[in-house]
Design goal:
Elements (H helix, E strand, L loop, with lengths): L3 H10 L1 H19 L2 H6 L4 H27 L13 H7 L6 H5 L6 H28 L4 H67 L3 H20 L26 H8 L1
Helix pairs in contact: 1-2, 2-4, 2-8, 4-8, 4-10, 5-8, 7-8, 8-9
Bound molecules: fe (ii) ion (FE2) (2 copies).
The site of one fe (ii) ion has 6 residues, from helix 7 and helix 8.
């Protein structure tokens, strides 16, 4: 039976599985930045809009870091097959802000903000858990672990600011709306994650030729994780980091635009 660390040792030792793992991470981070700039443009509160632009810039930075890491191994970023396309799947399960709402130029109201931040929080919670798992599993690859730790710290702040905004909205008299949407978002995320995790594991196991019993246990572990998240989606917790996306107003002549925000972190 393969331990988690020896399973990942096999993945890193095989160029095909190594490429699959790091390409998936690079594409996943690039996808998580998509539309955040458009969301920020819909938010009238200047301080909140700047936080969302900063989030956009940091996800873009994550994508760039993973792309460089992948290229350093002699590979380049490639589109993912549909069964590994997490972003399309979560949208299909109605998590986050629909594209149709972003095409509508009206500023976001409270409902729109709740939908956005619940989707964001559910996705960022998953990102934190995935980074923590990878840091543990890839302990024998210090270069990758250093990169993962940097990104993990950002993901913790992303969960924290989403939680903080949801807590603010809940305290203003919308607690039941926030909790209802948050549970729905976590359930939608769990469904998408299960589909992608199963497809991803199947591919990795095929590449490294894992025994049938290992494939079986990996599938059961994914299903158990899904069932726990789906049946017990939890409520609104507390932010792990206070004021996690502190983004002071810039002087007028340096007013941030999406492109400028990206450049700052490049
Ligand atoms: Fe990220
Ligand atoms: Fe993030």
């Amino acid at each position: 039976m393969l331990s988690r660390q020896s399973f990942f040792r096999h993945i890193l030792a095989n160029p095909e599985s190594r490429e699959l793992l790091f390409n998936s991470l690079a594409v996943g981070e690039a996808d998580s930045a998509v539309d955040l700039d458009r969301v920020a443009a819909h938010v009238e509160d200047g301080a909140l809009s700047r936080k969302i632009y900063r989030h956009f810039a940091e996800e873009t930075k994550h994508a760039r870091l993973f792309r460089k890491h992948l290229e350093g191994m002699g590979f380049s970023v490639r589109p993912l097959p549909p069964e590994l396309d997490y972003e399309t799947l979560v949208r299909g399960h109605a998590m986050g802000t629909p594209r149709s709402r972003l095409d509508d130029p009206r500023p976001f109201d409270t409902e729109d903000l709740v939908t956005f931040f619940c989707g964001s929080k559910a996705g960022e919670e998953r990102a934190c858990a995935a980074m923590a798992d990878l840091i543990d599993s890839l302990a024998e690859d210090p270069g990758t672990v250093a990169l993962l730790r940097e990104i993990y710290d950002d993901e913790i702040r992303h969960v924290s600011y989403a939680t903080e905004e949801l807590a603010r909205i809940a305290a203003a008299g919308h607690r039941s709306l926030v909790v209802r949407r948050l549970r729905a978002a976590r359930r939608a995320e769990a469904r998408a994650n299960r589909t992608v995790s199963r497809a991803f594991m199947r591919r990795l196991m095929e590449i490294i030729g894992a025994p049938r019993i290992v494939r079986l246990f990996a599938g059961v572990a994914i299903d158990v994780g899904f069932a726990l998240r789906f049946l017990f989606p939890g409520g609104l917790d507390r932010p792990l980091v206070a004021d996690a996306m502190h983004t002071p107003e810039r002087p007028k002549h340096l007013t941030a635009r999406p492109a400028a925000a990206t450049r700052e972190l490049s």
